[in-house]
Amino acid sequence: MPHRSDTANTFPQEDKKTAQDFYGLSIAPKILDILERIKFKVPTPIQLKAIPLAIQGKDIIGIAQTGTGKTHAFAIPMVQQLAQKKGTGLILAPTRELAIQIDEAFQDLTRAFGMKTACLIGGASMNDQVQALRKSPRVIIATPGRLIDHMGKWNVIPDEVVMLVLDEADRMLDMGFAPQIDKILRFLPKDRQTMLFSATIPKEIMDIVSKYMKLPLSVEIAPSGTTAERVTQEMYIVKKESKPQLLNKVLSQYHGTILLFSRTKHNARKITRSIRDAGYSCAEIHSNRSLAQRREALDGFKSGRYRVLVATDIAARGIDVTGIELVINYDLPEDAQNYVHRIGRTARAGHKGHAISFATPDQARDVRDIEKLIRITLPISKHPGISLEQFLHTSSSPSESRHKPNRYQNQKPRHNKYRRF
User: Which value, in Å, is the radius of gyration of the alpha carbons in the chain?
Assistant: First the structure.
């Protein structure tokens, strides 16, 4: 299965007819040669807008949904700038998986310049990271907690940072990293270039912008909550106890790679066992897995050894694989915004993809929150292999029934769709 970072610029033929190449974006010839060698031919919209400004040294707020090529939108300018001046580039990322993938993307570019990188993440050997830092890396990619560990031991010298990137900034705040980010930024030189990339811009991010950035320019390619352009979506209303049966039907219907999201790590383990028992190759990735186990699962999924990868939201922005056919929301996410990040794992780099969500009859509010965010109504489907009675409850909770009738009772399918909640 082909895979590359989130900037694997391979687009359908109809897009290439009018697409611009990387020439004319102020990119140095040596980097253009590298992009040609790694078969990056068509810049994504965020790259078209952000790269020229970043090369000029401007502070940037990049607003773009996941899977739009943000990594190279900051990696190309950073490598070009560092090739011309002293100092270090620092990238902060919310998850280990994302940090590793950013490091891999940078290595494609830095190798030709003789620059070294260091990836500082939890769950990996501190000693190995210290050895990497002693080799004077020009680019450091880190999760906030592990970077603070190294700063406390003076393994990282903040004064040398001349360029800073906050990647997936909203996700870092969602994960509770705000105090660590604030601590890190207070130690960095004020005379630096800062780039912040995020799918959404909540108040907390604006606080960071006003406090730590210099007249930043906003680059937006999609409104907050916009889903990937080429992903189709559908939803099944299903009783909790009927989810395994519905999952088996879906797995038999689709034959490509599948990324499945569970709300809890306990349920992820159960689902993984169930999928394996059904005869499908499957791996799991969540916070109870060691870094080595998570890397093995992700590498196996990329290579095709595992057809299905079961993940919790820790992986919603850390899995970057081109060619995922289907995303299944076995459990709806607690936060509607995570729905966008989850289904953004498919339909990447111009490919088409599909997302299926399982909603229980008592999750009407969760579905409405998702629909309000993405500004579309999710089509509700019925699987031909499962009867209507297996899908639906026939009673609602007392609190629900006081406010509205149970709209699932006595429903008849119409064009294989159901009425709304």
Answer: 22
Q: Are 392 and 411 in contact (CB under 8 A)?
A: yes
E-state strands within 257-321: 258-261, 282-285, 308-311
Alpha-helical (H) ranges within 6-69 are: 13-16, 29-37, 45-55
Distance of alpha carbon 71 from alpha carbon 97, whole angstroms: 13
pTM (two decimals): 0.67
Per-residue pLDDT of the chain (421 residues; tens, 9 = 90+): 434 444 445 433 333 333 478 998 999 999 999 999 998 888 989 999 999 999 999 999 998 876 678 999 999 999 999 999 999 999 999 999 899 999 999 999 999 999 999 999 998 999 999 999 999 999 999 999 999 999 999 999 899 999 999 999 988 988 889 999 999 999 999 999 999 998 878 888 999 999 999 999 999 876 555 555 678 999 999 999 999 999 999 999 998 899 999 999 999 999 999 999 999 999 999 888 888 898 899 889 988 999 999 999 875 556 777 788 899 999 999 888 788 888 887 866 566 789 999 999 999 999 999 998 888 899 988 766 565 555 444 333 333 333 333 333 333 333 334 444 4
Residues facing 353 on adjacent strands: 231
User: How far is residue 315 CA from its own chain's centroid?
Assistant: 7
